[in-house]
Specification:
Layout lengths: L3 H16 L4 H5 L5 H22 L4 H20 L4 H6 L11 H10 L4 H16 L6 H22 L14 H20 L1 H6 L19 H4 L9 H11 L3 H21 L3 H4 L5 H20 L13 H11 L3
Helix pairs in contact: 1-3, 3-4, 3-7, 3-8, 4-6, 4-7, 7-8, 8-9, 9-13, 9-15, 13-15, 15-16
Amino acid sequence: MMKKTELESSYELCAKICSVSGSNFVSAFRFLSSRQRRAMEVVYAFMRIADDLVDSTQSASERAERLDEFQNSFREKCISGNSLNSVLENLPEKREFSAIFPALAEVMREFAVPGEYFLEALRGVRMDLERSCYTTVEELETYCYHVASTVGLICLHIWGIAPEEIRPDAETDTFRAAVACGKALQWTNFLRDVVEDAQNGRLYLPLEDWEPENSVNSRDLLDSEKFSVYNPVAEEIRTAILRKDEEKLLPILRVNLERAERFYQESRTLLSLIPRENRPIFFLITEVYHEIFLKIRRNPTQIFERRVKLAKIEKMWLYVRSFFC
C-alpha cells in the first residue's frame, strides 16, 4: 500500500493547480462533499495540464511530443492496472504532470470513471494541434464531444449518476443529454470567442455555413482537411470577423445560435437526473454558460466589441438560484 502522505501529495498538487488557475469553476467545487471536491480538483488538474501542453510556446511538433508523453504516462499509470505504489516508484523525474496520476488512478477507481473518457478528451485537445477550422457541423460536434462532453461525463460519475447510465456509447437518455450539454457549452464558447479565435488564426464556425464569394458549393475550397495549413474559405471568414463585417457574419451567427439553443433544449432533463445534493454545482456551471448564450442571442454583434461575460451581481443571483434547483 502507498503511504497516505505520498498519495496526499498527489492530491495536494492537484489542489494547487486549481488554486492558481483563477477559474470560476473551481470556486463552485465548494458545493460538493470533500471527497467529491478532491476528485473534481484532480479532473481539473488533468485537463489544465493537457491544455497547457498544447497552448505552450513550443513548436507544434514539440507540443505534440509532450502531449504524447502525457497520454502514454496516463495509460501506464492509470489504465494498465499498476498499483499506486508502482505508480509512485515509476514517476519520471522532472515530469511534474506525472505526479497527478496517483490521485487520478484512485479517483477513476473510486468513482468508476472509464479511462476511455480521459483518452477521448486528450484526443480533442490534440485536434487543436492538427487543424484550425472545420468544414461541417458534424465535424464540430465531434470536436465538442471530445473536449467538452467527455469531461462532463467524467464529472457526472463524480456527482452520483449511475455508471451504467453514462458508460461510453450508452444508449440512454442520460448519456444523450450529457453529450448535448457538452455541445451546448462548447458552442457558447465558439460564439463568445469568435474574435479572439480569429486573431489566433482559428475558426470554430462550420465552413459550410459560408458561401465562398467566387466558388459557391465548391467542396474543394470548403474541405478543411485538404487545406491543412491554409484554407481560403476559413481565411475569408476570419478576415470578415476581424473587419467586423456584420452584414456577412450575422446570418452565420444566427444559424449557430439556433444550433446552440437546440443543444441546450436536448440537455434540459439532465439537472433532474443528478442527485439533489449535487445539483447546485451542475446548475452553476451550466447556467453561467446559458446566461452568456442568452446575452449573445439578444445582441449577437456585441461579440465584435467585447468578450461577453456576466456581471458580479448576475453571478450572485445564480448562486442564490442554485440553492433552489
